[in-house]
Design a protein that fits this description.
Strand content: 15-25%
CATH architecture of the largest domain: 3-Layer(aba) Sandwich
Largest sheet: 7 strands, mixed
Number of strands: 39
Radius of gyration: 39 Å
CATH class of the largest domain: Alpha Beta
Mean pLDDT: 82
Helix content: 25-40%
Distance between the termini: 64 Å
Number of domains: 6
Shape: flat
Number of helices: 19
CATH topology of the largest domain: Lysozyme-like
Structural class: alpha/beta
Length: about 950
């Protein structure tokens, strides 16, 4: 069955099997005798064929089956024993049973005299066979045949590959895969949407772990792969992310620009990779800004704390001007003039220099912009002259109103391309009323996350053509959006087609664009011919098939433009010298026209070359301006923050305080007190102590699956070990949820001979081979840091169970002091919490309003719904779950299709008080938020 499943139904035309009796007795045909252990559930004689047939996967039970070899093990005796008749009767009995897969042949071994099992020359055996034939047994054409499974469009079976069990962060490794196409669709090696093999990473909490875009490798197929075919993909590269711990690596095929196979129901290949830190990772990773702080910069960061430095804004780098190691923080910039020595960087001087350079860049850009505008006008004049300047010719270009600058759009967010990249004229319908205002249409597109209207031209209900974007602007550089000019016809064409004016206008526009872009008519495609969508309507290729009518009108427009007719006066920005008179229609006239065309083409090429050079220069200066402006803004903010901090410190010193301010006291992390809910011994009770007797905190692991309920742990301690109650004081689950299970005064049994002065914290799970996930260690750090503050316990007194005297145990796991050494990880996180450098403690933000965002869109309507609420309460608002973790209260706006329930649980695990405000639609969400603002209440479920 495993082999058949691996082959798959699409790989087989049918299958054959063999079966025998161990002896010549006909009774062995129907014998139910079984094999010896461990195969005692399998038949020993002829009936073994049933075991084979019952093992056939459901997906293959429509295929023909044959028994191509059967006999008695012993050589055939020339006797008509009835063995042959019994064998065929048994197969007939099988075939008669309703729903059984039909066996289409039973072949005796063998006729020819090539070995001792021959039948040739043994008339009694032949007679037995002929008597069996006389029964007229046939396999049934009307037997129940299971319907072959409908193959999904996308399905890949990973037959072989992977094997990346351990790696060092930052490495790039190479592997291979053998993959079978079990879907209905051929995988294309090339074309607009090639199929490639890619990968993604997640940490133990299920959160994405990213690699740089240039290292997000996609491996091409060696060939097109048809349904049922298997392909070996060599040279598959993957970069190990800069993270550590057990990471989930998911391999999947992707049809570029269309879909990942897993999104269509195909099962990806998943493996767990133990990633160890690389040397360059040693340091502290600030989760709030996702930046590393290392070496002497880390010492300064920890020494002065967030009050002085703020969060790191950059990674450490070598400055191009000073050639010093440099790192920017929110409030200061630091540099390393000598090894191990850190000083403040002169950011005020940098800001002044940057402002001077920006002023110069702005002047250059203004000049370049004016030059480019003039050059555009010259080029348009040249194009008009080329279209209108041929004697007897007429222009193809229809009347077009350019309304690009009148529409809501963010020009800098469009992708840029060359006109030569345009390969298609893509027809759309707007999908709404033909009289819908175009600015509203543009607004809808912006709500979908586009920087503006996605179309380049729109044809309204009266046939008027409006240009809505330059050819070189596109909302995406992928697929048909990157290679097409998008033309929208106003209306929805599922039941009707565009009116005659619209079709004629679309044809005239397409005819002109085909000539301008040097395309053939087959470049005219509906968007539904590229992706699965309803646009440009059901009538495009079916029903009235208005594509055919449009193409016919395009052909007419081209023909009409090439007919001799009344010439239009040429528009020539540079009039040619008056030529000598030539005879109309003569060779001389043709030569003159060709020379004129060549001059125009030369002038146009020269102008376009100058324009391209200017645009490149402008783009470079634009990018530099944006970069410099960003740096200036940061530096001005840093200078202001530094001055404010200096003033505050001076005031503190004048009041007699000579020390830098300490971090604010820690608040107790969120926890569930279940002390009184857990099982207790019927008679035994733990002793108690005063809190000042507690001098050490003991870290445990449960040495069992983390999913086991706390109640089961308590029952084990009480009923199996005879303890008065559970041994631990605190218990932390993998999601970071923290439970108090004993009063701190309780002297529980948790570290033999050392219970009187210790407090026990158990991290649920078995950490023999791998450390706890980050979420669990973060929660442990928050709890232990607070306990250290409350009980005045130093770092040195945070110990694992195995570190206490007279305790021969592996708890809290081999990884506590070896391999990953998660003791050090825990202590680092505790110090960060205690110093106010960890976003979970001290609750630096009181109230955070969290909205969703994606790479290409965001919660714009939710944001607008919350404007009154935000104006009333002035909370911190944003899109980062990591930032929200630093808040005491978090309000999530919108349903779980935006900010997921997993994110909500993560926030709760971080100790945040979380409330989700989501109505049945945007209007209802706005009503809820407005009602809260009007009533002066921030929350529905919390006070305040």
């Amino acid at each position: 069955a495993d082999i058949l499943t691996t082959l798959g139904a699409v790989q087989c035309d049918g299958f054959a099997l063999h079966t025998y009796t161990h002896g010549s007795d006909p009774a062995l045909i129907t014998s139910d005798a079984v094999m010896e252990a461990p195969f005692q559930d399998r038949h020993y004689h002829f009936a073994a064929y049933r075991d084979f047939m019952q093992a056939v996967p459901q997906t293959m039970r429509h295929l023909p089956a044959y028994i191509t070899e059967t006999g008695q093990i012993d050589e055939w005796a020339d006797v008509n024993s009835g063995w042959v008749k019994a064998a065929y009767e048994e197969i007939e009995s099988w075939n008669k049973q309703k729903g059984n897969q039909q066996i289409r042949a039973l072949t005796l071994y063998r006729w020819s005299r090539h070995d001792k099992w021959y039948i040739d020359g043994k008339p009694e055996v032949v007679k037995d066979f002929k008597e069996a034939l006389g029964k007229g047994y046939k396999w049934r054409v009307d037997a129940v045949k299971p319907t072959p499974p409908q193959l999904p469009e996308y399905k890949a079976a990973f037959v072989q590959g992977g094997g990346l069990h351990a790696a060092e962060a930052g490495q790039t490794l190479v592997t291979h895969f053998v993959v079978r196409n079990e879907g209905a669709k051929t995988w294309s090696k090339g074309g607009r949407n090639p199929v490639r093999l890619g990968s993604t990473w997640q940490n133990q909490a299920g959160e994405p772990v990213t690699v740089p875009p240039e290292s997000d490798f996609r491996t091409p197929l060696p060939k097109d792969v048809k349904a049922g075919e298997t392909v070996t993909i060599q040279g598959v590269k993957v970069m190990i992310p800069l993270a550590d711990g057990n990471l989930r690596l998911t391999w999947d095929l992707v049809e570029e620009g269309v879909t990942w196979f897993a999104e269509q129901g195909s099962s990806p290949f998943v493996e767990i990779v133990n990633v160890t830190p690389s040397p360059e990772m040693q340091g502290y990773f600030e989760p709030v800004t996702k930046k590393w702080v290392r070496g002497p910069f880390l010492e300064a960061y920890r020494q002065y704390g967030l009050e002085i430095t703020g969060y790191p804004l950059t990674d450490q780098y070598v400055d191009e001007d000073s050639h010093l190691n440099t790192q920017y923080f929110q409030r200061v910039a630091l540099e390393e003039p000598k090894a191990g020595q850190i000083r403040l960087r002169l950011v005020g001087q940098e800001a002044l220099t940057a402002q001077t350079e920006i002023d110069g860049l702005n002047a250059d850009i203004a000049r370049l912009t004016a030059d480019i505008d003039q050059l555009h006008r010259e080029i348009q004049a040249l194009k008009d002259a080329m279209q209108n300047g041929g004697d007897g010719s007429v222009t193809l270009k229809p009347a077009i109103e350019d309304i690009t600058d009148q529409l809501p759009r963010t020009a800098k967010d469009f992708k840029r391309r060359q006109s030569s990249a345009i390969k298609y004229l893509v027809i759309n319908h707007t999908g709404g009323p033909a009289d819908l205002a175009i600015d509203k249409l543009a607004g809808y597109h912006r709500d979908r996350g586009y920087p503006g209207l996605a179309y380049h031209y729109v044809i309204d209900g009266n046939g008027a053509i409006m240009q809505t974007n330059p050819w070189t602007d596109t909302v995406s550089d992928q697929g048909y959006l990157g290679e097409g000019l998008n033309i929208a016809i106003a209306g929805k064409f599922d039941n009707e087609i565009p009116n005659e004016k619209q079709l004629r206008a679309a044809a005239q526009l397409c005819a002109w664009l085909l000539v301008e872009l040097r395309l053939l008519p087959d470049a005219i495609q509906g968007v539904s011919e590229f992706v699965s969508t309803g646009s440009p309507g059901a009538q495009w290729l079916k029903g009235q098939r208005y594509k055919d009518r449009l193409l016919a009108y395009v052909e007419e427009a081209v023909d009409e433009a090439t007919k001799p007719g009344t010439p239009k006066p040429p528009v020539d920005p540079k009039p040619d010298p008056t030529p000598d008179p030539v005879e109309p229609g003569s060779a001389a006239e043709l030569t003159a026209l060709r020379e004129k065309l060549q001059r125009r083409e030369s002038e146009l090429a020269e102008a376009q070359t100058r324009l391209a050079a200017m645009e490149r220069e402008l783009a470079g200066r634009d990018d530099r301006l944006a970069s410099m402006q960003s740096q200036l803004d940061q530096q001005v903010a840093k200078v202001a923050a530094q001055q404010a901090e200096i003033n505050r410190l001076k005031a503190a010193l004048q009041q007699g305080g000579g020390e830098l301010p300490a971090a604010p006291p820690l608040t107790a992390p969120a926890m569930h007190d279940i002390t009184d809910q857990l099982v207790k011994h019927e008679t035994l009770r733990y002793a108690t102590r005063k809190l000042d007797k507690i001098t050490h905190i003991c870290i445990h692991h449960s040495a069992a699956p983390a999913t086991i309920p706390i109640e089961n742990v308590a029952e084990y301690h009480v009923k199996d070990r005879g303890w008065p109650g559970i041994g631990y004081h605190y218990y932390i689950k993998p999601d970071g949820a923290t439970y108090q299970t004993n009063r701190m005064e309780t002297i529980s049994y948790q570290v033999s001979d050392n219970n009187s002065y210790t407090l026990g914290v158990c991290v649920a799970g078995d950490f023999t081979y791998q450390p706890p996930p980050d979420t669990q260690v973060d929660a442990a750090a928050r709890l232990v840091a607070w306990l250290m503050q409350e009980l005045d316990i130093p770092d040195a007194n945070i110990m694992g169970h195995k570190e206490f005297p007279k305790n021969d145990t592996s708890c809290p796991g081999e990884t506590w002091l070896k391999k990953v050494t998660w003791k050090n990880t825990l202590l680092d996180k505790i110090r960060s919490v205690r110093d106010g450098q960890n976003g979970y403690v001290g609750q630096r933000i009181g109230h955070y309003v969290l909205f969703w965002q994606r790479t290409d869109t965001w919660a714009q309507q939710d944001w607008e719904a919350a404007e009154t609420y935000i104006g009333r309460f002035r909370p911190t608002a944003g899109f980062s779950v990591d930032d929200a973790k630093t808040a005491e209260y978090v309000t999530i706006v919108g349903g779980d299709a935006g900010v997921s329930f997993d994110a909500e649980r993560t926030l709760q695990g971080a100790g945040c008080k979380v409330e989700r405000l989501a109505g049945k639609d945007f209007a209802d969400t706005k009503r809820i938020l407005d009602d809260l603002a009007a009533s002066g209440r921030r929350f529905l479920t919390f006070p305040g």
